[in-house]
Write a structure and sequence with these properties.
This protein has 712 residues and is of the alpha+beta class. It has 21 helices and 25 strands. The strands form five sheets. The chain has a six-stranded antiparallel sheet with strand order 3-2-1-6-5-4, sandwiched between helices. The relative contact order is 0.05.
Length: 712
């Protein structure tokens, strides 16, 4: 009986061992990590993950030597490590090497190996983990971090952009890299920055089309890996021995603002998916930077425009002859344009052509001017020739005076052209898009100013009014934070127009809303900063007509929303004047009076004149606020990326990120929640933070909140 029991136990133990072995084999065969057992220099066992790693089927495998599927430069070292481990010698347990797949593709693996006994033979068992994607992602993050550091560091916009392009060219192993923006003059695109691997000076390129323009217009990445054989390849790019190019749209707010163009001379399939992904990530990070720089450039240009117009207004307001004033205006224009020749041309009274009314610096007394300036006069639009000597209709008399670039700008009053400002430089390519925009804006403001200067009697009669308007304009243009000067603005307007209540609103026509920025005087209280729908309020009528709204008696008009509140406050009449910039209503000045008919033609003329001068200041203020918010966003993103990139534990990094979010949100407290075990509510608080002196809400209070982030 004892013998029978012993045999039964042995059979049970054998079956148990067989089941255990089968279980272990199933685990090994289905492991996500590649596993192999090596005896001597032969692999006696590999699992399914190993076969997948090297790219072969089980039926193809046969006997595998250790060196097979290992990159030549790593093969000897791996074999020597394996043999040393089997001999019991101390060797590193964890190391990395390159696997060479059957299709020729390389993968980086991290190997963890130990010595074992296999069928009474010394052997080693290795677990191989494919870390190729991890290594690539790590390298990409390092590149993006370096570029983020460049953009957030100190230096000029040009230096930062140049450094970014140098880094982009380096990581892409390219011959050269450029950024193109829209070319308003020549059409297509133009270069704003370009770096070359050989350090040579890049050529000035305008009117760029081809694949870069396609990427700009479609907002999609365009890769051309067989450039020399592509029928649509650009001839000049082909001549630079380009073999592969990639065009990457740079976007801000979903709109393409530029294109990063990268060219390789190395091989015809240079821009593989991995390299394309990295370059796309870099381009995606440039959009907000370029947009912020554009807004800052707009603010600077607006400031220069306002400064120039203010000086010109001052020249025309001084006592003296009309001709002397015009001469002073042209001299100021020459100074701003950095040119040696400016003429104010008007139609010749006897023959077709233009003749100088005023000329400054070295401008000759040329009669019957045709060509570019006459075209600007007749078409009513700016005309530019940055290579004037090659211009088909160039005036030989102008060329003889050394002219290399010429800009002709029509001067208009009420859409009618009455003259042309001819601005001439002795340097080629002098009138770049930025300079043209600035000078056009200034000359566009000259027409009304010059027309007013002609009406000397009216100017004298309105001296006090103009002085007040100028003072108001000076107050508003002296700061980008207009909220700080509303009270001074109100007191100065009161000197010009009598009123009992004033309101200033900003208007978003696209959203169909308005926001009250300031009110003063009697009447109902207003929710400052709260958006209101334009429909069924007086501002809606202003936007619909685009013209000043005057109501002499609210009681006699069809009643709109809010009218009753003003009537009950004793306000009977109103005038609402639009603030218009670049043909867009951006806001309004709203005056109310107790008596009916408070606002007549005189008040309307003064307020409209004032609105024309101060509208750019309001737009500048909006741009400044937008730019400031954008900078704050970029700073927060950079701080968070720095936290993640810095060494430290996951908990410390998460705590640092939450502290940054608490600062940016200007909140009293913040908690990071995760779902509870029962799947209901958010019960576990990973991070809890409170601003100085603030109390956190209880956990019970937040149990039922259906949000991942709760902020007070």
């Amino acid at each position: 009986m004892a013998e029978t029991r012993t045999r039964a136990q042995l059979i049970e133990e054998v079956n148990s061992l067989r089941q255990t072995e089968e279980s272990y084999r199933a685990v090994v065969e289905n492991s996500l990590d590649a596993m192999t057992i090596i005896v001597g220099t032969e692999r006696v066992f590999v699992n399914n993950a190993f076969l997948k790693l090297v790219g072969v089927e089980k039926s193809e495998i046969g006997n595998i030597s250790v060196g097979r599927f290992i990159a030549p430069e790593d093969r000897d070292q791996v074999i020597q490590r394996t043999l040393a481990r089997q001999r019991g010698e101390p060797v590193e347990d964890v190391f990395e090497y390159q696997v060479l797949r059957s299709d020729g593709q390389r993968r980086t693996v991290q190997a963890s190996a130990v010595a074992i006994d296999y069928q009474n033979q010394p052997a080693s068992m290795a677990i191989l983990r494919d870390v190729t994607d991890y290594k690539r992602a790590q390298a990409e993050l390092e590149v993006l971090f370096r570029i983020s550091s460049i953009l957030s560091g100190s230096g000029t916009f040009e230096d930062k952009l140049n450094n970014v392009m140098e880094e982009l060219a380096r990581v892409s192993e390219a011959a050269w890299a450029s950024i193109f923006v829209q070319d308003d003059q020549a059409g297509g695109l133009r270069t704003i920055v370009e770096v070359r691997k050989d350090g040579s000076a890049p050529p000035t390129r305008r009117g760029i089309r081809g694949f870069a323009l396609t990427a700009y217009e479609k907002g999609q990445v365009v890769v051309v890996n067989e450039y020399q054989s592509n029928p649509n390849a650009d001839r000049s790019v082909k001549e630079s021995e380009a073999k592969s190019t990639i065009s990457l749209p740079i976007k801000a707010g979903g709109t393409t603002v530029a294109v990063a163009y990268v060219c390789s001379n190395e091989d015809a399939n240079h821009f593989n998916p991995d390299r394309t992904r990295l370059l796309t990530a870099i381009a995606d990070g440039l959009g907000d930077f370029l947009e912020s720089a554009r807004l800052q450039g707009q603010l600077l240009q607006r400031s220069e425009e306002l400064e120039a117009l203010f000086k010109i207004s001052g020249i025309l307001a001084e006592p003296g002859a009309h001709e002397d004033k015009l001469n002073g205006v042209m001299q100021e224009l020459a100074r701003i344009a950095e040119v040696y020749w400016v003429s104010l041309l008007v139609p010749d009274p006897t023959e077709r052509g233009l003749s100088p009314l005023v000329r400054v610096a070295d401008a000759p007394a040329l009669r019957l001017v045709h060509g570019l300036s006459l075209a600007a006069f007749e078409k009513g639009q700016a005309m530019v020739a940055n290579d004037y000597q090659s211009y088909p209709d160039a005036d030989p008399r102008v060329i003889a005076r050394g002219a290399k670039s010429l800009l002709s700008l029509p001067i208009k009053v009420s859409e009618e052209t009455f003259g042309v400002a001819a601005i001439v430089s002795d340097e080629p390519d002098h009138f770049n898009p930025e300079r043209v925009r600035l000078l056009t804006a200034i000359v566009n403001g000259l027409g009304p100013i010059l027309e007013k200067a002609k009406l000397s009697e009216e100017l004298h009669a309105r001296t006090e009014e103009m002085a007040a308007v100028d003072e108001i304009a000076r107050i508003l243009t002296s700061t980008l934070e207009i909220d700080q000067v509303y009270d001074r603005f109100t007191s100065e307007v009161k000197k010009l127009v009598d009123f009992d209540r004033i309101g200033i609103s900003l208007i978003d026509q696209h959203a169909g809303t308005s926001i009250i920025k300031f009110t003063s005087g009697i009447g109902p209280s207003s929710d400052i900063g709260t958006p209101r729908i334009l429909h069924n309020i007086r501002l809606g009528g202003l936007v619909a007509s685009g013209k000043t709204v005057v109501v002499d008696d609210l009681e006699a008009e069809p009643e709109l929303s809010l009218d009753r509140q003003y009537i009950e406050a004793g306000l009977s009449s109103l005038i609402i004047v639009p603030l218009v910039s670049h043909a867009q209503i951006i806001g309004a000045i709203d005056l109310r009076g107790r008596r009916t008919g408070s606002f007549g033609k005189r008040e309307q003329m003064i307020l409209e004149r004032l609105a024309n001068q101060i509208a750019p200041a309001f737009e500048n203020s909006q741009l400044y606020e937008t730019s400031r918010k954008r900078r704050a966003e970029l700073e927060a993103l950079f701080n968070i990326s720095t936290i993640f990139a810095a060494p430290g534990t996951h908990e410390d990094k998460l705590n640092g990120v939450m502290q940054e979010l608490l600062r940016v949100a200007d909140a009293d407290w913040m908690k990071l929640l995760v779902p509870g075990l029962n799947g209901k509510g958010l019960a576990t608080f990973l991070v809890s933070l409170a601003a100085g002196g603030k109390d956190l809400p209880s956990d019970t209070e937040l149990q039922q909140r259906p949000t991942a982030f709760a902020m007070g």
